[in-house]
Task: structure prediction
Amino acid sequence: MTTVAATPQTTALARGPAIKRWLRLAGRYPLGTFGFFCIGFIIVVALAAPVLAPYSPTQVGTGLPLDGPSADHWLGTDQLGRDLFSRLIYGSRVSIIVGFIAVSVAAGIGVPVGLIAGYAGGWADALLMRVVDAVIAFPALILALAIVATFGTGIQVVMAAIGVALMPQYARIVRAQVLSVKGSDYVLAAKAVGAPGLRVVIRHIAPNVWAPVLVVATLGLANAVVAEASLSFLGIGVKPPQPTWGNMLLDGFGQMQRRPAMSVAPGVAIFVLVLSFNFIGDTLRDALDPRLRGLR
Amino acid sequence: MVSFVIRRSLEALPVLFFVSVAVFSMVHLLPGDPVRSLIPVGDQTVDPAEFEEAVQRVRKEHGLDDPLPQQYVRWLTRALSGDLGTSIATKQHVATMIRERLPVTVSLGAMSALISLSIAIPAGVIASLRRNSWVDIVATVFSLCFVAMPGFWLGMLLILVFVVWLDVLPGPGSYVELWVDPWRSLQLSIMPAIALAGFSMAALMRLTRSSMLEVLAQDYIRTARAKGLGKKSVVLRHALRNAALPLVTFLGLQTIFVFSGSVVIERLFAIPGVGSMAVDAIFSRDFPVIQGMVFVTAFVVVVVNVLVDVVYSVVDPRIRVGL
Result:
């Protein structure tokens, strides 16, 4: 339907010099472009943190404790006299890394499960999807909580826990996609010439799966960032003194009466990052596959 | 209809089986000897010989020498009959603790559902009727913001504005139940309820808007208009009824939101519900409590999902054929 109508426009976009093409693309997807630049900015900040941060994020007593913003400390200092601006900069690293690794874990488990369940069908499908249903039965944060309770806190456990909690979406969407192309002529043709099952799945079915997976993954990055922040805010996520936006908010919560501003900057950072991932996800969904509009 | 209900319920059984196996294995996945994590920390300071004896005693008491399947069956039988074990920290029955705290979480969840329904549905309907007007744009911007805002940060901002700056609401703590002091309880739970509602409100508003737009484009809406029905009557009688279908899904999702969200929100606002109980249990390494809470939550979610599908099939008979 809409996909067909979009094709001429897409070809029109492909013409002309590179800069003009990009500008036209940006004009058509302003929110996606905004999100793209925000994410780019945050990734650059995360990479260049040692250059950008005026102080070490864990160094205690760089100034008076709970000092207000000044020329030396742009955002002031926390209860231990650590520089909040430096901590904010370094906090971006945790959000970005946890986001990408958790989503890779989720896709790394979910995509093969969905491919196998969809292609094999029968009892394998039934078994795998009931396991996926069982994972869905645990609300994401409760599942993460149980995993943290079992394996202890720390950044690796947090990434794995969030990854497992996000996995079902990938399994379900990939399975649905496989089912929709499984009966198509080119898959039957590949089977008819005697291609082995694995080859059919990898060469002929999997390429149809990447578009929805990309959309789910982008939106999943947003969920992972929020989940990490929530766990760190509870004090059961990434261990202090490593700065994360979540445990900075926890520090801020303790100082709400004396230094209310401490609760603002890390929250804005999370908000902008999540908003940007959502914008990119929505844009990708509209551009790649309008049928997915109801997703999420 | 009956066959659908039976089939859907039977489908849930293997799910519950995997859920119970997962929760059961938690103890056995703990690093080290599970027995040692069941012994109160205070007892571990005694001399090694006595400690070993205590380990053996607990092992026997809990039947941890038996083969795993046998242990699983015993654990499941007990859990299903309402015995979820005993808390290490408080020595209370875990089931009792959950029963005491569940009403707090449920009433918070109900309040937040009420808030998001009463704002999101009218906003979504109006936005769909006045598509691309300023109302639509404002509603869309708000929903984009609330979707991207972690609930606990929204809660912190509410505290900042209404407690620290304006000083019109009491700060977190000193929770009272609704039936003890309704006014005070309402004052204490309005902020956590809003914080918990933020995300689902935004999601529901977008859902309502898009399903209304879809329904409004249908032929029977045009027919209703063409036969001379007023716009108001068409919207209320024809469009809204069909657009309300996703509402059932929403109420199911709300259960999951509430359980997940309550963990952080109850902690933030010092509300003694199941969420804050679970976090406390992590800090005091009170494993039976975490296990019980996780099991009950997953059980409730599976049952709610079955109910959602059944209600859906009643409201929309096409679903029964599709499954």
User: Anything to note?
Assistant: Confidence is low (pLDDT under 50) at residues 1-12 of chain A.
